[in-house]
Amino acid sequence: MKNFILHINLILLFAGIVVSCSNEQQSILDIKHTEKLLETRPDSALKLLKQIDPKVLSTSEYARYCLLMTEALGKNQIPITSDSLISVAVEYFNDKSDKDIKAKTYFYAGWVNQEMQNTKQAMEYFLKAADFAEGDKDYKLQYLIYFYLGDLYFQENLYDSALKMNKQAFKFSKLLGNKNYMVYALRSTALAYSGKGQKDSSIVYYSKAIDLLPKSDSVTLATLYNEIGDRYNDIKKFKQAIQYVDKAISLNPSSEELHYFYVVKAHIYYSSAQYDSAYYYYSKTVESPNLNTKVDSYLKLSNIERKRGNLKKAFEYTDIFLHNKDLIEEQSHSEMIIKMQNIYQHKKTVEKSSI
């Protein structure tokens, strides 16, 4: 009897080992399959990763799993609120000799920290990624590293550094032969020149981006038209400014984008002292769901009424302006009204470049 029970226990133990090994082998196969899927079907890749039991993975496979899960979350535009996954990959691959996997790991560590608004840490990771990727043939990864670095420097008002990174990004986009990536890099370069106050150079790079962009991409084209219109307004070429913004509007943008385009058009009329037209468009932009847009619009409406001599109406708009400004400060403590609009548009393009 005792021999029989022992025999059964041995069978069960062996069966358990076989099942465990089978599960681990299947998980490893799933991980390899996921790597191939991520480029073409990131949603399917994420579903596959979620079916894997991390507990059956070896240390090395678990590190790769954490990296792939981070990549899958990014490609599916799922918000990242913790660096716990990517930290596992960083810790494991940091001591390995494979520069390719280290470059990729540090890139995603940078992306996660950028998403979490840990700017300094994100920059450090991206710069490490650039070092490990140097000389590699993975031009897409190098493009993304420099593109995201440029975006970080831009948001920190470090425009010279942003220009340097954007030009590197453009170099790799050319090596890739990817026109969309070229357009994004050129646009970022234009934004950086604008930040430096070099509006003419900014217009040059916007024009290059527009020439390269497929006209079928109406969303990006509308954004470029609107922004180049804003730059023409900066150098007081109001006729060209209005022409470009009208081109943007003619492409039937979404209501959210349309409010932003109306803001620029209102600014152009305001800058050229065409106050009736400016008033008309600011009256539209006060309906924007973006509080920053509301605040700036009410302030401009107040200024226009003051110029017209309608002091009572000017004070009414000022009161509304102050009320909405307080709401913004409670929510974000931000007073960078127009720049916030610019960063918002820039961020949309960054996301569209697809990590």
TrEMBL record:
- What are the protein's UniProt keywords? Cytoplasm, Repeat, TPR repeat
Cite the repeat ranges for TPR.
183-216, 222-255
What stretches pass through the bilayer?
Answer: none
The record's annotation in PROSITE patterns points to: PROKAR_LIPOPROTEIN, TPR, TPR_REGION
Please state what the protein is called: Tetratricopeptide repeat protein
Q: Which InterPro entries match?
A: Bac_ResReg_Asp_Phosphatase, TPR-like_helical_dom_sf, TPR_rpt
| Pfam families with a match to the protein in the record | TPR_8
